[in-house]
Design a protein that fits this description.
Number of strands: 4
CATH class of the largest domain: Alpha Beta
Helix content: 40-55%
Order of helices and strands: HHEEEEHHHHHHH
CATH topology of the largest domain: Aspartate Aminotransferase, domain 1
């Protein structure tokens, strides 16, 4: 029998309103297709394991993503990994998801790969690209006593989380508010998604 993780409930609850039904449906479809699946939180977002790494989902400011650990073998040429993290592309609404029948087929195929112990040869990781900090964020960080050192200590992925969030702002005033909030959280040593982690660890 599979297991659910309360931290995944917290992650969904803290996600944007548009993301909640998407994440709930993805979660339900994974459990329906794979009753023995186990939920975990890895790298700050929900993962599902079944005889090893299986699949994962995530919510961002304006879209969600879903991916299989062995995605190249599950979807092949149908993968939309160029559009977003994972293989289903940018998921902004339920209409962007595959049909339940198609999704069940993907999940069953991924299960079979794990049942058979098939592995994917992974290319060596290329050197990470340098993180380019927007000028307005860089200037705001310098004005805070603690923020520059804290930001420098962040991993590249945590830095990019802030930069992507700020860059997605449509209005100048929204961007300014996000820059100010990013500096405040950074000075406290918090990553952009720290709210999910803190919610997940509450009793």
């Amino acid at each position: 029998m599979g297991t659910k993780d309360a931290r995944v409930d917290a992650y969904i609850a803290k996600s944007a309103d548009f993301a909640k039904p998407i994440l709930k449906r993805l979660r339900a479809e994974v459990h329906a297709a794979c009753p023995d699946v186990t939920e975990e939180m890895k790298w700050s977002f929900p993962h599902f394991t079944y005889k090893g790494m299986f699949c994962a989902m995530a919510a961002f400011t304006q879209h969600c993503t879903f991916g299989f650990w062995k995605g190249s073998l599950v979807l092949g040429s149908n993968s939309r990994s160029a559009d977003a993290m994972g293989q289903l592309g940018r998921i902004a609404s339920l209409d962007d998801l595959p049909s339940k029948a198609v999704m069940a087929g993907y999940l069953k195929k991924a299960m079979a790969l794990n049942d058979q112990g098939i592995t994917v040869k992974r290319k060596p990781k290329a050197a990470p690209k340098p993180v380019r900090v927007p000028a307005d964020l860089a200037a705001a960080l310098k004005k805070n006593k603690n923020a520059p050192a804290a930001f420098a200590d962040f991993s590249p992925s945590h830095k990019r989380e802030y930069i992507e969030w700020i860059s997605e702002a449509k209005r100048a005033d929204t961007r300014a508010r996000r820059v100010a909030q990013a500096v405040e959280w950074t000075a406290e040593g918090k990553s952009r998604n720290a709210k999910y982690q803190s919610a997940a660890t509450r009793p």
